[in-house]
Amino acid sequence: MYSIYDYAYNGLLYLNNILRPRHKRLSQLMIYSTTLCQSKCKHCNIWQKEPEHLSLDDIKRMMESKCITRRTIVGLEGGEFLLHPQAKEIMAWFQQNHPNYTLLSNCLAPHLVIDAVRKYKPIHLYISLDGGRETYQYMRGRDGYDKVIEVIETLKDEIPTSLMFCLSPWNNFQDMEYVINVAKKYNIDVRIGIYGTMAFFDTTSDLLSSPDFVKQIPANN
């Protein structure tokens, strides 16, 4: 969770970036390092792309930018970051040189996630969960619900953990409530995002045209 200091710092950072555009600083940097993914998500078609990766050398060059400070939180994701052919080397580099980094995962390889967290010590773990067992398989094309729960139960007391829920044309508000209740059960938090079309992920479906979404929007009184 964010502290008052985090909000104050980000507010000052925002003012700095507005008033001193030549001296901008990043509060966060998300690195989409690989297109490899073992999910087949309906809301993301990155898994259909030819495998592409940012190398460790590429990432080192990015981290040399003046807009990145020691307080910049760097997120490692993909695709599925842990499928990156240099995943261990990249996490080891961050552990040594910029320990203020986080890991995002679908947890379809639970033991890989658990081992990486324990060995390379990211400061936060973000886990994708978009509904219960049936919704998970329908939306993500894999039977991965139990694997997500395994990682949560194993690591929730070892690393700050958040569930990442994406409201999309393929799930609904009941799924969102379900994920919130999972977070409550394990005393972790949940971050809620709204699906949008993004060229990088080859997404095309319109959320607002989804019958399952539209029928749940309350009519204006």
Keywords:
221 residues, alpha/beta, 8 helices, 6 strands, single chain, globular, six-stranded parallel β-sheet, 15% strand, 38% helix
Which secondary structure elements does this structure contain, and how are they paired or packed?
Blueprint: H1 4-19, E1 28-32, H2 56-63, E2 73-77, H3 87-97, E3 101-105, H4 110-120, E4 124-128, H5 133-140, H6 145-155, E5 161-167, H7 173-186, E6 189-194, H8 211-214
Parallel strand pairs: 1-2, 2-3, 3-4, 4-5, 5-6
Helix pairs in contact: 4-6
- Strand proportion, as a percent range, falls in 5-15%
Counted beta strands? 6
Order of helices and strands: HEHEHEHEHHEHEH
Structural class given helices, strands, pairing?
Answer: alpha/beta
Q: Strand order across the biggest sheet?
A: 1-2-3-4-5-6
Q: What oligomeric assembly is this protein in? A: single chain
Q: What percent of the residues sit in helical stretches (DSSP H or I)?
A: 25-40%
Structural shape: globular
Mean pLDDT: 87
Radius of gyration, rounded?
Answer: 18 Å
Q: Major beta sheet, specifics?
A: 6 strands, parallel
How far from one another are the termini? 35 Å
Number of helices: 8
- Runs in which pLDDT lies below 50 for 5 or more consecutive residues are 217-221
Concise overview:
The protein has helices at residues 4-19, 56-63, 87-97, 110-120, 133-140, 145-155, 173-186, 211-214; strands at 28-32, 73-77, 101-105, 124-128, 161-167, 189-194.
Task: Give a structural overview.
There is one protein chain. The chain is of the alpha/beta class and 221 residues long. The chain contains 8 helices and 6 strands; from the N terminus they run αβαβαβαβααβαβα. The protein has a 6-stranded parallel beta sheet with strand order 1-2-3-4-5-6, covered by helices on one side. The radius of gyration is 18 Å and the shape is globular.
